[in-house]
Design brief:
heterodimer, A: about 475 residues, mainly alpha, 2 domains, 17 helices, B: about 290 residues, alpha/beta, Rossmann fold, two-stranded antiparallel sheet, 7 strands, about 60% helix
């Protein structure tokens, strides 16, 4: 079920009503309702793949219990390896089987031997990368004795399948989300209203910004060889805002929806396009994945404790794996590699933690230096997104090559038809800039001083804008990951 | 919780109220301009893009062309009903009848499709009576709701761009587009044959138009505008089915079938639509033919 669909608009109030008015007095029943709702939510897309989630959940639940009763180091390790093998095995099969097979066949053909192996027609289960990482975090934390294993199967199933973040994150840690299922949730008016505001902004980002940008980005990327450099530049910019609006929009809706049910999810995007360097960008973009890789891959590999070569190696590993996590294509690997390259100089100069505060804190506008840094960082990310979006590495290189031309100074032919979307991108940038110190763009703070009727006018306008200017309904990009 | 629920309903209430108020506002504003046409115009031309691009009503002196792209017979029915009421001098209706109008495929594309309803609803709300509204709502509630939500946007357009410009009931469109070659290429590649089944809904509204014309002494003439030979070749079966349908159901009405009318290639914008030059040529011929009879 898509968040931006009529189905979800009907589904959410029904679940909300049952949750707060029918099952409120019984925590177990409430958690059970979450499981049922989550399975319906997921099954709406393809009920057959529910078996995967259920299987993974039961496996990790029982491995967690066994780990708690086991002191033998070897046995504990075996249990952890079993969980990793099964979960990553599913992920590897559904997501990477054909990729490895194709590359294997291609590698053979390089030596003059051609082998004929047919790939399988595999459908990628929606959200598999997300819930796999979520359940893995549970097993690893229990193994490391950072988390007490749960004996409450209902809570655990609800934790793994919690519908707001099941298919595209944020990837919640068991230590943050699981305990919330043990306690009775209280309805807090301010929290719920703030959740609704966050959903509204998420829908604006997804439906108005991302879906409209998607139409133009698709047209330009699909015919890049026929377009002028200025059009290609706009294409790359449209994709840059498409992916941000799409993914951060999803996260906003997920976090906002969770708040309606009394849950707190971690912030997943902290206005990343206002970053002053690439390290700050990665602290602000898809934070739940970045921290996951940091805690479960980078640190176990030695992190930055070793020598310079170790740091460089670990940086490249984490970025390339992160790229590969996004999809089974060399474009994602190159995208990760490129980001590692961007990151390398500031890491080697020990400047990767200089911009940890908010840009232009307590000021309306950035300084010239900050502005220059933001634009430069943004430019780097735009270049990297070309690899992310292009169907192949060759296409990405040709696309970038097409940007280097005198026609970069020409006015794109379709500029007039893009104007309304460009306007909405500016609305997005302007609103998020004003609210960059908050958790989301419609969070009240000083805005509380604005008269209520004015705030309502703003919300009503956004609400209408979503209906009037919503682009053609598109799947969330991150569903494919 | 009570406060939350009340505020949610208040918000939705404001939203619904704005939509309803703007629907009423649009209706009042559009009605204030009325649907009156010049007294000497007694021929009404209705249909889809075929007639929209082919008949230049500036050259056909006593006519008015209100054809609109992708108009189904449902919308043509609404138009003739309203126009006749407001303009009793209308005594002739020229209605597009082409190979595709009655196909089942077009029932979905031109009547029930959500984005189609969304774009047409605001234009035709004022022409609808309760049963028409109920028919659309039953067919696609989501489309109608989305159409209603569009009404405040339409109000803004009516106010800022002007009612006459925005009340797009349809008119002759002089096109300078030229994509005949691409269209020929595209259709050659496309081997798919459409289902020849006719839509019961489209037939129902076609017969409603016939019934209306009979009851109100309006002479009904069907017209099929010129089609490129490549098109007629490709759609031969559809044209044959149309002729059979005409012979068995509509034969007491005149059918000006110009599907094989000889028009040079530079008069087409694509395989089944004339351009401005073609419209000029064709309309002159049509006026001559009608005057002869």
């Amino acid at each position: 079920m898509l968040f931006n669909s009529i189905d979800f608009a009907v589904f959410l109030p029904i679940v909300f009503f049952l949750y707060w008015f029918v099952t409120q007095k019984n925590l177990k029943l409430q958690n059970l309702l979450i499981i049922i709702a989550s399975y319906i939510f997921y099954g709406w897309w393809d009920y057959k793949f529910l078996t995967l989630i259920v299987f993974s959940s039961f496996l990790d639940y029982s491995i967690g219990l066994r780990l708690s009763n086991c002191e033998d180091k070897r046995k504990r390790k075996t249990l952890l390896v079993l969980s990793l093998l099964v979960n990553l095995g599913f992920l590897g099969f559904f997501k990477y089987y054909n990729f490895f097979l194709d590359n294997f066949v291609n590698a053979f053909s390089l030596f003059g031997n051609s082998i004929n192996i047919q790939g399988l027609n595999i459908i990628l289960p929606v959200g598999i990368s997300f819930y796999t990482f979520q359940t893995l975090s549970y097993t690893i934390d229990v193994y490391k004795r950072k988390l007490e294993p749960t004996r409450d199967i209902v809570s655990f199933l609800a934790f793994v399948s919690f519908f707001p973040q099941l298919v595209a994150g944020p990837i919640e840690r068991a230590s943050n989300l699981l305990p919330q299922f043990y306690k009775k949730r209280e309805f807090v008016y301010k929290k719920a209203i703030d959740g609704l505001r966050q959903i509204l902004w998420g829908l604006f980002k997804k439906v108005v910004v991302a879906d409209n940008c998607a139409t133009f980005a698709n047209q330009i990327f699909d015919n890049y060889s026929e377009n002028s450099a200025s059009t290609l530049l706009f294409g790359a910019l449209f994709f840059t805002f498409q992916i941000y609006g799409d993914f951060s929009g999803y996260s906003d809706i997920a976090i906002g929806t969770s708040r309606l049910f009394g849950f707190n999810l971690k912030q997943n995007f902290a206005f990343p396009y206002f970053s002053r360097d690439i390290a700050e960008f990665w602290r602000r973009w898809h934070m739940s994945l970045s921290t996951w890789f940091r805690d479960y891959l980078y640190i176990p590999l030695g992190g930055s404790r070793g020598g310079t070569w170790m740091k460089i190696r670990n940086t490249f590993i984490i970025f390339i794996v992160s790229g590969f996590w996004h999809g089974a294509n060399w474009t994602f690997v190159i995208w990760g590699f490129l980001n590692a390259l961007y990151f390398l100089p500031i890491m080697l100069l020990n400047k990767n933690r200089i911009n940890t505060n908010n840009v232009a804190e307590n000021r309306l506008l950035p300084t010239f230096t900050e502005f220059r840094q933001i634009i430069f960082t943004f430019f780097l990310t735009v270049i990297a997104w070309v690899f992310f979006r292009a169907p192949s590495v060759t296409d990405a290189i040709l696309y970038l090559k097409g940007l280097v031309s005198k026609s970069i100074f020409s006015v794109p032919d379709n500029l007039n038809s893009w104007l309304i979307t460009i306007f909405f991108i500016f609305v997005l940038i302007f609103t998020e800039w004003l609210q960059r110190e908050k958790q989301h763009a419609l969070e009240l703070g000083d805005a509380n001083k604005i008269p209520r009727y004015l705030r309502w006018c703003f919300y009503v306008i956004i609400f209408f804008t979503i209906f009037w200017y919503g682009g053609s309904e598109q799947d969330f990009i991150y569903f494919q990951f | 919780m009570k406060r939350f629920v009340i505020n949610c309903f208040k918000f939705l209430g404001v939203f619904i109220l704005i939509c309803i108020v703007s629907l009423i506002f649009n209706s009042i504003l559009i009605n204030s301009y009325g649907y009156k046409i010049e007294e000497n115009k007694n021929v009404l031309i209705l249909g889809d893009s075929h007639t929209e691009y082919a008949i230049d009503d500036d050259l056909f002196k006593n006519s008015i062309n209100l054809s609109h792209s992708a108009d189904s017979y449902f919308y043509s029915y609404l138009k003739i009903r309203k126009m006749k009421k407001e303009n009793p001098q209308i005594n002739t209706l020229i209605l597009a009848l082409s190979n595709h109008n009655l196909l089942i495929e077009y029932e979905d594309r031109w009547i029930f499709n959500t984005s189609h309803i969304k774009s047409k609803f605001r234009i035709y709300t004022d022409l609808m009576k309760l049963p028409d509204f109920c028919f659309l709502f039953k067919s696609n509630p989501s489309g109608v709701i989305q159409g209603i939500i569009e009404s405040p946007k339409y109000s803004i357009k009516l106010l800022f761009k002007g009612v006459l410009k925005e009340r797009d009931l349809g008119k002759f469109q002089a096109s300078n587009r030229n994509r005949l070659k691409e269209d020929i290429e595209q259709r050659r590649k496309n081997k798919k044959q459409r289902s020849l089944e006719y839509s019961s809904v489209e037939k129902k509204y076609l017969f409603s138009i016939i019934d209306f014309c009979n009851r109100n002494n309006v002479k009904l003439i069907f017209i099929n505008t010129p089609l490129h030979p490549e098109y007629t070749k490709k759609k031969a079966k559809e044209l044959q089915v149309l002729n059979e349908f005409y012979n068995s159901n509509l034969s007491k009405f005149k059918f000006l079938n110009y599907s094989n009318f000889d028009v040079p290639d530079d008069c087409y914008q694509d395989l089944d639509h004339l351009n401005a030059k073609g419209a000029k040529l064709f309309t002159a011929h049509l006026v001559n033919e009608i005057n002869k009879n």
